[in-house]
Write a structure and sequence with these properties.
Layout lengths: L5 E2 L19 H23 L12 H10 L2 H19 L11 H50 L3 H16 L3 E7 L2 E8 L6 H13 L16 E5 L7 E6 L11 H22 L2
Helix pairs in contact: 1-2, 1-3, 2-3, 2-4, 3-4, 4-5, 4-7, 5-7
């Protein structure tokens, strides 16, 4: 590692692009919020019912289901649907303040409310997730366009590696590292995040480049590495590179290679172009 020049950068202060969850809250908090919204809807429905008779008052309980599906996720939304049906039965059908139902029509009303809640929950959650995925793709495309311009304009390999580490960290919201390798040796390391690569990880990166294959963290030959590595091959005389990302094992994207391979190809072309220009 004596010949490695590492240039750490500040931690990211932006939310990961790959995160599609609406609220960065633990599951108990999201369920608690869904219960609270259903309680508010119940209080509102009981208050209205005590003053005026309104048909289809049960639809008030659909509102927290929609809000939970959009802002909290599918589980809390289903929770609101179940609680809404139970609250309507307990507070607004005869005999009140019991779960008994005297009128068969109310049985259908409660069942229908529950079914509507399930349908609305699924539709709202699916629509919100599709919108989030579309927004994610738009931001990824914008970042990749910006990166292509920056890496093309860079006038040396270190600047290209630096731009690459930044774009990868912005795309995935995790520590990123880019090794520049010449003649089988690491000559420079550009990274974003607090995780500095260790000697075993440097060896895993070199192995990834030598074999031309992705080396996944915890899997031989990168069994002791925290980083996943992707090789960036170039012409024989140009500096090569290896891209590394430190994913949380519990939050690893399903298909990170799609975006990473685009970045790797752009970096490879930029390194080859810079090497050719330097040779003239």
């Amino acid at each position: 590692m004596a010949d490695v020049k590492s240039k750490p950068r500040r931690d990211l202060d932006t939310e990961p692009v790959s995160n599609l969850s609406s609220l960065d809250l633990p599951a108990p908090a999201r369920y608690l919020i869904s219960v609270a919204m259903t309680a508010v809807a119940t209080a509102l429905a009981v208050g209205i019912d005590s003053r005026v008779t309104i048909p289809n008052l049960s639809l008030v309980f659909v509102v927290p289901v929609v809000m939970a599906a959009i802002g909290l996720g599918l589980g809390p939304s289903l929770c609101s649907a179940v609680l809404g049906a139970l609250a309507y039965n307990f507070f607004l059908t005869e005999p009140r303040y019991t779960f008994n139902v005297d009128d068969p029509a109310n049985v259908w009303a409660i069942g229908l409310l529950f079914v509507i809640g399930l349908i609305v929950s699924g539709v709202a959650f699916t629509s919100h997730r599709k919108a989030a995925e579309a927004a994610l793709l738009r931001r990824q495309a914008t970042l990749l366009q910006d990166y292509s311009r920056e890496v093309t304009a860079a006038d040396n390999a270190k600047a290209m590696a630096s731009a690459t580490s930044r774009i990868l960290a912005a795309l995935f919201g995790v520590p990123a590292v880019v090794f520049l390798i010449l003649d089988g040796k690491v000559v420079s390391v550009e990274r974003v995040g607090v995780a500095a690569p260790q000697q075993a990880e440097v060896e895993a990166a070199l192995s990834s480049l030598a074999t031309g294959s992705v080396a996944r963290a915890g899997v031989y030959p990168a069994s002791t590495s925290r980083f996943d590595f992707w090789p960036v091959t170039t012409t024989a005389s140009a500096p090569a590179a290896v891209i590394g990302l430190l994913f949380d094992p519990d939050e690893r994207p399903l298909a990170p290679s799609i975006s990473i391979e685009i970045v790797a190809r752009l970096l490879s072309l930029a390194l080859d172009r810079q090497h050719l220009l330097a040779g003239h």
